[in-house]
């Protein structure tokens, strides 16, 4: 199977996710800056989730750039990834509405963790499909960055039950590490 439909579908889903997130933000009533203070937590959680969707979109684009084909398992793994990313708007809004309290922050971490696991599964299926000498296998081989990110999510989930804002800051730290494109792919890219 060719990969174009998978890429187009994924791009569309991620665009819709971002649209949903921005539509969740309500415009405050009033015309001075003081009316923005109550919506600041919502805006902060929106920014972090927007960055995460952008990171996944960017890295998904890079990943698809180095693969030549997909199969049914890849399509299902990709849907699995998109499912978890599609929960970002809900969990992000819940965090903002509840000012970074325990359960919203913990659930956000769980969703981030599951998205990272779905990414790992997608990468492994693509590596198996393309073989041990493929560009994707060379790029994602051990994937210490991905494994470390997943571990930080798990730790942050547990910390959320004691100091939720620290957990949220850990999620921000992981996003900061991933904000730049994955250079493992760019080094292997031919164009």
UniProtKB/TrEMBL annotation:
**Bilayer disposition of the protein:** Multi-pass membrane protein
InterPro entries hit by this protein? TMEM175-like
Keywords in UniProt for this one? Ion channel, Ion transport, Membrane, Potassium, Potassium channel, Potassium transport, Transmembrane, Transmembrane helix, Transport
Q: Would the keyword Cell membrane turn up in this protein's UniProt record?
A: no
GO: which molecular function terms?
Answer: potassium channel activity; proton channel activity
Q: Where are the transmembrane segments?
A: 12-29, 35-55, 75-95, 101-122, 152-180
Catalytic activity, per the record? K(+)(in) = K(+)(out)
Q: Where in the cell?
A: Membrane
In its keyword annotation, does this UniProt entry include Ion transport?
yes
Q: Record's Gene Ontology CC terms?
A: membrane
The record's section on Pfam families has: TMEM175 (PF06736)
* Protein family according to the UniProt entry: Belongs to the TMEM175 family.
Q: What is the name of this protein? A: Uncharacterized membrane protein
Taxonomic classification, please? Bacteria, Pseudomonadati, Bacteroidota, Chitinophagia, Chitinophagales
